[in-house]
Amino acid sequence: MLSRVAPWLASHKDGTGPDGVTVRVLGATDTAGLRQLAGADPVANVFILAHLESTGTAAPTPGGANVLGVFHDGLLVGACWAGANLVPVQLEPGLTAAVAAAAHRSGRRYASIFGPADTVLALHSHLEQLGHAAHEVRPDQPLMTIAGAPAVEPNWQLGFGQYADFDTILPACAAMFEEEVGYSPYLGGRDFYSRRVAGLIRQGHSLVHLSDGEVVFKAELGAVTSEVTQVQGVWMNPSYRGLGLSAGYMAAVVLLARKIAPITSLYVNGYNSRARATYERVGFRQVGTFATVLF
Description:
By secondary structure, the chain is α+β, with helices and mostly antiparallel strands. The protein has helices spanning 2-5, 31-38, 46-55, 96-105, 117-129, 166-181, 191-202, 246-257, 273-282; strands at 21-25, 66-72, 75-82, 85-89, 112-116, 136-146, 159-160, 206-211, 214-224, 228-236, 263-267, 285-294. It has a 12-stranded mixed β-sheet, with helices on both faces.
């Protein structure tokens, strides 16, 4: 379909677009090139690197997600995951117009764009011109990492979630999601989100403290490679907020994550000064800036 309507694609009759730039869906033979491209920044690109470690290929998934590769004179110079979300990979802002058009022509609806701020905001600008109206734009999300020991004592009541506790963990995950994005993750049905949470528990990527049959604190390692974990879904039960417990739990998150990879990362809304202060107290330091666009 794309080759019939997008003249900058490699499948177009002359094979190139303006300035020698082409965009096409990557295949299995592009795996090494994509891995090398993403490896230039293993923290910012942990999402796609985790996908490559898991599947071993840059080819489209059985569910229809794919990676749009941007080539200049035959060299892969940028990419963008195009699935439920758009996730740019080493993509310069100046190349986002072609990616936005290719993503638009696919006919897919995207839940969000997230990644390095300059690129995400440029991509959103082009998609907006194509009729993709955003629900919310979060332009300033510090990307933070810690590679050494945390600076505060960990709370070892935190541990890896067990599948036997799925029915307790799932509602806490849903509550976090609704607080964060403003709508229920169950819109359109419970199955997809439930499978996601169950998968994180089974993979050993769910971190939780349970007490008296409820979740006190929880977080997930949402993207994992052999080098980097990305912490997502941090949530404290409202009954326990304001008691100074977060730093100890986050220190435990870091030490549990280090059993998997040496670098722990996360990104946080810039306006969330309390969370940023907690992360800094634990020892996280800003290494970049992300942005998220919610549709």
